[in-house]
Design goal:
Blueprint: H1 8-15, H2 24-27, H3 38-59, H4 67-79, H5 88-112, H6 120-130, H7 134-150
Helix pairs in contact: 3-4, 5-6
Length: about 150
């Protein structure tokens, strides 16, 4: 299923199912109460961002950090992994590899036609694969979530 076709609210729910520890709980039963999934990772990251910005505001008042700044940093930290599917770093490598394959195929087709470069449309398509990141997916899903929240 296309990552971008998922309902953004469902992506929030999915964070709790994406475990960072794999089967570590089975191999190390003493840590069976330890939890590390994307959801709790995001909660912890938001807490640390909040504490960091709050501390900066207290220690460096000349920065003029506002409550809005504090809220924005906390929300950014909370939402930073929305586009992180399971094994997303390996998935990025896979998608970038597809981009290389698509580029090679497009360049071969262009060469067969006697052209020196691929078309602008092909270049745009190839670049989508070559530059895809889970961070971009996070931004996309966050925008979709805001749109979903605007609906009655």
């Amino acid at each position: 299923r296309d990552l971008h076709s998922q309902r953004p609210g469902a992506r929030l729910d999915a964070l709790a199912r994406h475990s960072e520890g794999g089967r570590g709980h089975a191999d190390f039963p003493a840590h069976e109460t330890a939890t590390h999934n994307r959801f709790f990772h995001s909660i912890g990251t938001a807490y640390l961002a909040h504490e960091l910005v709050k501390g900066l505001r207290h220690r460096q008042p000349e920065l003029g950090i506002t409550d809005r700044d504090l809220t924005c940093a906390t929300l950014a930290a909370l939402c930073h992994d929305l586009g992180h599917p399971t094994y997303s770093h390996m998935f990025e490598v896979f998608v970038h590899g597809l981009g290389r394959e698509k580029r090679a195929e497009a360049e071969a087709r262009a060469k067969e036609k006697g052209l020196f470069r691929i078309s602008e449309a092909e270049e745009a398509e190839v670049l989508r694969y070559e530059t895809w990141t889970h961070e971009q997916a996070s931004v996309f899903l966050l925008k979709e979530l805001f749109e979903e929240l605007r609906k009655p």
